[in-house]
């Protein structure tokens, strides 16, 4: 049995498992002998990943296609979570959008709030009760380096990621006495479908792109290595440097500086 399985238990729930960082979490957790519940909307992607994981790692997989921004999300997911001991919850599903806030569709912004903030909060409340009773467990909330400052053009997204950061940091304090490890994972630019969904164009970084962007594999490896140690995890040297600089700067200046960066990255809003 792997250290991770021994420490946290037999099952993990991973949201956003149909792509990017979430799919990589699913593979790396399964590789360590932990059974997985895969949650996202695209059933075909989840089923394809489930069959790869079952074949490669010989673990049990449950596929739970669901829209996590739905109001009744906990009731929808309850059957997929029943009668298993969940020792690891990875709240990874999320999306961003770029552009002037007042020009955006408010219903899309509302579903971002529901997906990025409400769903991890409710799923944590539902699933972590069992971890607290058993005296062991792990929770990862995927936030972002964007959590450390606002930026024009990503006003609502950055606010949702700040929520995730503060939620995880507070929860870590509350759950430490019960043996439950909580991590706020704050990746910087990572090569996934995120940029396309958010209307950002990483090619605008030119040759700097390969220094600025990380792979999902390196983000997930850093996260799993750090779980149970540091609470706030910022993968990558450049990202750590940026977060350090943001913390030193007056907030108004940091917000303006990041706004300039967003102008550069935007695919043309
Ligand atoms: N990539 C980056 O540069 C970066 C940087 C910092 C933080 N992050 C954070 O990392 C997390 C994962 O993003 P990613 O980079 O892996 O992006 P991604 O490749 O676009 O994956 C997003 C995942 O979220 C799921 N999702 C989106 N809307 C959903 C909904 N309404 N209900 C259920 N699932 C939904 C998607 O699945 P379906 O479409 O199948 O539902 C997909 O599995 C996000 O929280 C993001 O904020 C990303």
Plain-language structure description:
- α2 links the parallel β1 (11-15) and β2 (35-40).
- This protein has eleven helices and seven strands.
- The radius of gyration is 18 Å and the shape is globular.
- The longest helix is centred in the middle third of the chain and has 29 residues, at 106-134.
- A seven-stranded parallel β-sheet has the order 3-2-1-4-5-6-7, sandwiched between helices.
- The mean pLDDT is 95.
- It has one domain (3-265): NAD(P)-binding Rossmann-like Domain (Rossmann fold, 3-Layer(aba) Sandwich).
- The protein is an alpha/beta fold and 269 residues long.
- The relative contact order is 0.13.
- The chain is 52% helix and 13% strand.
- It binds NADP nicotinamide-adenine-dinucleotide phosphate (NAP).
- Residues 16-22, 40-42, 45, 67-69, 92-96, 115, 142, 144, 187, 189-190, 192-194, 197 line the site of NADP nicotinamide-adenine-dinucleotide phosphate (NAP).
């Amino acid at each position: 049995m792997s250290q991770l399985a021994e420490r946290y238990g037999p099952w993990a729930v991973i949201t956003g498992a149909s792509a990017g960082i979430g799919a990589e979490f699913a593979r790396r957790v399964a590789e360590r002998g932990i059974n997985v519940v895969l949650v996202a909307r695209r059933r075909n992607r989840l089923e394809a990943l489930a069959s790869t994981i079952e074949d490669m790692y010989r673990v049990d997989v449950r596929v739970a296609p669901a829209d996590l921004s739905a109001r009744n999300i906990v009731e929808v997911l309850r059957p997929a979570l029943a009668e298993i001991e969940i020792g690891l919850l990875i709240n990874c599903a999320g999306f961003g959008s770029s552009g002037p806030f007042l020009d955006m569709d408010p219903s899309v912004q509302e579903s971002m709030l529901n997906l990025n903030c409400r769903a991890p909060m409710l799923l944590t409340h539902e699933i972590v009760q069992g971890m607290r009773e058993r005296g062991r467990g792990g929770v990862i909330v995927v936030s972002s380096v964007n959590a450390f400052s606002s930026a024009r053009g990503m006003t609502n997204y950055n606010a949702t990621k700040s929520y995730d950061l503060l939620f995880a940091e507070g929860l870590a304090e509350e759950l430490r006495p019960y043996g439950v490890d909580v991590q706020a994972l704050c990746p910087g630019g990572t090569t996934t479908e995120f940029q396309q969904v958010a209307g950002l164009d990483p090619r605008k970084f030119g040759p700097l792109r390969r220094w600025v962007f990380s792979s999902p594999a390196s983000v997930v490896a850093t996260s799993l290595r750090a779980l149970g140690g540091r609470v706030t995890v910022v993968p990558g040297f450049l990202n750590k440097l940026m977060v350090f600089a943001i913390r030193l700067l007056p907030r108004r200046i940091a917000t303006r500086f990041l706004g300039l960066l967003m102008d550069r990255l935007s695919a043309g809003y």
